[in-house]
Amino acid sequence: MSQVFKHYQYLHTIPELGFEEHKTSAYISEQLKKAGYQVTEHVNGTTGLVALYDSGKSGPTLALRADMDALGHIIDGKHCAMHTCGHDAHSSIALTTAQQVMQENIVKKGRIKFIFQPAEELGSGALAMIEGGAIDDVDIIMGLHLRPKEECPKGFATPAMYYSASTTIEVDFIGVPAHGARPHLGINALDAASLAIQSVNAIHLNPALCYSAKATRCLCDAGVTNSIPAKANVCWDLRAPTNQAMDELKAKVLQAIEFAARSIGASANAVVSKEIPAAEINDEVTEIIAQGIKDVLGDKGLIAPVYTPGGEDFFNYPRQKPTIKAGFWGLGVDLQPGLHHPNMHFDLDAMDIGVNISKACVQRVLG
Fold first, then answer.
1. How far apart are CA 279 and CA 175, in angstroms?
2. Would you say 337 and 82 are in contact if contact means Cβ atoms under 8 Å apart?
3. How far is the C-alpha of 203 from the C-alpha of 198, rounded, in Å?
4. In CATH, what class is 165-276?
5. How many CA atoms lie within 13 A of 234 on its CB side?
């Protein structure tokens, strides 16, 4: 049984939500210390940790980042945490890479860092690690993600994943309560929410862009069915391929929501609860990753860069530190039926490919 499978076998059984990855972090930390790394735990007061090895020779500092958190699901009416996005595999790949980098004495110059980050799904884990100084001394950072089978099957990998910007906006619509028989005496918050949803649906950007803005949750209940509700809450999910397009889309959405509510005398209190930037990927690092993929899978195993409307908080690293050179790649694992699906599964043997590609990248930068 390979090292990566052993790690995965354990991590998969202890799914923990964002900033609650206590068992996950403790296990990874223990393994890294045994491997000979200097480990910093509880980065910025979180479950995040950083492992460092310094060769003692001049060279760049390369960081490999993995996310640790599971997703929240409601299964049979019960809330639970499940690893349905592959973060347990990402952590297993990074941890095994860290062990084998030491076992095989791959690092000949510079420094290698392994960043195990909490709360990617919350969109705030990377920011917490940045605030804790995790990348202050990092020159190059790489991340990876398992890919759905239809996008990238097992035996293939992409050197660049161009994720979109994503924004979550939550809005409380405030009206005036009244009896259902006398609606003229109130202001229906549900009407305001409905008008806002339609107003946002009417927003247009350049049609050449792949973007979307849609309501994904609406909560409204006056407690009885014959009263005018005075409050409604609506959540919107926004996607855009570039940070500039997201800025434009967000501004239009916020304006549409405000004007829609005001049109019937209601008010709208909007909060941008989560913002994840679009991918900012360095061409030089992408080429290093591409060569690493070919080292392991040959020329035939390298596929073109992938563009996706999905979001990834990894890109807060280059966003917050523009001097850092960032690369993010996708690993084919025959993942089905899709990311975030309760029945998500993949070919576990592909994790060894991820380890070998990661090591090849480390070899090219620090070998």
1. 39
2. no
3. 9
4. alpha beta
5. 26
Alpha carbon distance 305, 153 (integer Å): 14
> Beta strand pairing status for 178-179 and 140-148?
unpaired
42 close to 49: Cβ distance less than 8 angstroms: yes
The secondary structure of 166-210 as a DSSP string is EEEEEEEEE-B-EETT-GGGSB-HHHHHHHHHHHHHT----TTS-
* Distance in angstroms (rounded) separating the CA atoms of residues 257 and 264: 12
112 backbone dihedrals φ, ψ, rounded to 5°:
-115, 135
- pLDDT tens digits for range 159-186: 999 999 999 999 999 999 999 999 999 9
Return the DSSP state at 349.
Answer: T
Cβ-contact 133, 52 below 8 angstroms: no
**3-164+281-366 and 165-276 share one fold:** no
- Taking the domains of the chain in order of start, what are their residue ranges? 3-164+281-366, 165-276
Instruction: Say if residues 48 and 128 touch (Cβ distance below 8 Å).
Output: yes
Residue 334 tokens, joined: 């025959």
Residues 174/227, Cβ–Cβ less than 8 Å: no
pLDDT tens string 91-144: 999 999 999 999 999 999 999 999 999 999 999 999 999 999 999 999 999 999
Amino acid letter for position 2: S
User: So what's the pLDDT on residue 204?
Assistant: 97
Decide if domain 3-164+281-366 falls under CATH 3.40.630.10.
Answer: yes
* Whole-number pLDDT of residue 29: 98
Q: How many Cα neighbours within 13 Å face the side chain of 124?
A: 11
- Give the distance, in angstroms, between the CA of residue 41 and the centroid of all CA atoms in the same chain: 21
Picking from 330, 333, 280, the residue whose alpha carbon sits closest to that of residue 305 is: 330
pLDDT per residue as tens digits for the range 342-352: 999 999 999 99
d(CA 233, CA 190): 9
Q: Is 299 helix (H, G, I), strand (E, B) or coil?
A: helix
First vs last Cα of the chain: how many Å apart? 28
Q: In the structure encoding, which two tokens stand for residue 346, read together?
A: 């993949």
